[in-house]
Design goal:
Helices cover 53% and strands 17% of the residues. It contains 28 helices and 24 strands.
Amino acid sequence: MQRFLSLPKPLLLAVAIVFSAGVVLYSMLWMYSIRWLSNVELGFDFNYIGNQHCEYVKTVEPGGPAERAGLRPGSRIIAINGRPIEDRDTLYEIWAHQKPGNTVELVVLNNGQTTPVTLWATFRERRSPSKETGLTERLSQGLLNAYPLVFLIVSIPVLFLRIEDRNAWLLALMFASFTAAPPLPNFLAGMASPLRDFAMVYRALFNTLLGVFFYCFFAMFPVRSFVERRLPWLKWAGLAFGLCFAVPGFHTGGPRAPALLGRVIGIEPASHILWLLYNYSFITLGFASLIGNAVSATTPEARRKIRVILWGTLIGVVPVSVQRALSDFFHVHPPIPLVVTLVLLLFLFPLSFAYAVVKHRVLEVPVLLRRGARYMLVLRGFTILLALVSIAVLLIFALVLAPHLEVLPGGGVKGGIALGAGFGTVLLWAGMLVHRRVGEKIDRAFFRSAYDARMILEDLVEKTRTATDRDQLASLLGRHLNQALQPSSIVIYLETAGDRLSAMHGSVPADIAVLSPADPGLASIARKGGPWEISETDEEKLPHPFPLAPLRPDCLVPLLGRDGRLVGLLVLGARLSEEPYSREDKQLLASVAGQAGVALESIRLGEQIAERIEAERRVAQEMEFARQVQSRLFPQKLPALRTLEYAGACAQAREVGGDYYDFLELRPGRLALVMADIAGKGVSGALLMANLQANLRSQYALAATDICQLLVSVNRLFYETTSDNSYATLVFADYDDSTGRLRYVNCGHLPPLLLRARGIVESHTGPRPAIEHLDSTSTVLGLFENWQCNVAETTLNPGDTLILYTDGVTEAINPEEEEFGESRLINIVCSNRNLPPQALIASIIKAVQQFSHEEQADDITLVAARCRA
């Protein structure tokens, strides 16, 4: 069955159309045939006895042709015109071809006789039933004649409204079987052969399978019964067994044992009894399944839904089943009034389904008509009135315009047509506007609750956009949805931290207060993408265990983010009015869900921005603290020297950086000028700079006697405590205040500049002081474990200026991608060589920043020293 329902919907629709057409055609043929009467009669009532192949004479009209021929009540007709009575339709076929005045030969067995006698009777014209029957009998006959209609009215609309629902198809098959339950009236005598053959096949199939279809429906509806759970193969076995009896009966219109079974059993009554036992056994199992499901229903709503069907089935089907069993097994034939009563009771069976569908939403069929008769009259009446007014306005317009067009030349007609078309367009637009506004007023007058619900939900769509946090959004949704739809319960889940769904509104058990969107049940809801009203069939398809099952949801509305992610969920219980959620309700809920999803995304984005701002604030605060700490690592006081004035500064590109300078007093009259540049910027560079500073500060006393011993130790510690790609360039210069001697080690750093006070050289910018470069003497620190140290020496004379700098000075770039370069540095130093060291440094930093348009990419660190006389 599931494979059949998985077919494309257009194909299912085509099958449903063919099936419904067949059921309707058979019902029409049956109702036509039961009203058909032959033109002739003999004046006796009869009943066919199948196991004796005879027509049993029940009553004989006094003075009629049958009585005059010698026919008596209790006689059995075994042949007519030499043709044996083979089945029910033999007599009707012969009667259909007779005319009044024709003579017929009847072979009869009278009571207590074993030898048949032959009687001759003359047909007379059939008398009008209205002259022979009373009003009550005619009304009863009319009800019997309309027997299939009730089953058609219920089953076919349900099938087309729930065409992908297994239960709708099972209901249609079961009700089709009930339309085939009565015998074929008059055995379709006088009907065209193709129609007669179709009716025979239809009745043979559905009448034979009535019991198994009855069981199949109640074994699966509303849930699988205890019989179905224990014996799932039983329904298929029953269908196979029933088809074995149905196919051989296609030419007789009823069940017939297959030839092989007939040969095994040997006698026809035994095979007929076997079919009866099969049929009534499955009907009994159907009753057992229905009662079992009614008893085991776990919720008041489920019990309420099945209670109506249970009583309708018991009251409607049980009496007629008992009557048919008595007739089939014991040949007990009830009087017509009892038959009519039983049929009226049987009508309760489909009517109970109709009531359950409308009132209790069984099969989830939205058959409640939104518009009543008064509403239709008012709305359609207004539409007709609007059309009449429009026609009248057009006529008046034409009459007013016509005299003016008559005096115009032929070209004026075209203008008149254009003017009329324009006026008609304006009139159409105005009519649509009036119709919409008046339609809203009619809706409000006739369906105030539905109108108010729509207004509330439309208002909610607008207000949802203004929610600023989850609690406000959940409160807004809960209040408006409860006011508009009045569900028995409402729970609202919204996405919270950790991408979890938390219950923000409504009462829920603790174990489902927080859910994971990855749960298979919730993932299936997200795939639906819109409001999902859960039916009994849907409940069976949901993964087990379904986390929302304790909430007994009736409608689930997913809230999806922009990327289709499940960011929230509305869980609505059944409406207090017991009405289903209408299509308009679901459309409005979908709109609310869409806006709520956008609002949740905005709330989440706002939270992320707030978190980022807070994180950036904390980082900025921490970086400011780090800057203050690092600034304390630079020299806070300058040891006084008699022959040297000096200063240092660091303009960092970030809060912290990797440049380092220091002034270390090796002993009185001995000063070490230190300049270093760490490979790295920002926090990483600052940490390495602190490491290098700590190593130097802890061991710099060694430099008083041996600079190389100090730097070898610093290199080893720096190498061991940093990563493989970490290193530093460094200049360590030892100045002797008494002699002016400068001993230095340049570890891969930019060569310091030494401007001599004496000695002028020519350059492209004119005469300038002679400049010496203190080039590298060793490799960088921290990159190699085995490191060699070489010391160089020079002397500072009075007026000489020494400049130590990092690459942040010479590699500064302007918008034209030009570097500041060493030549510009030399020019600035030469131009400002008479300034004190601190002012000289400030002028260099200012020039570099102006050159790069204040966009500093690297730290600018400088040390300036001038020898005094």
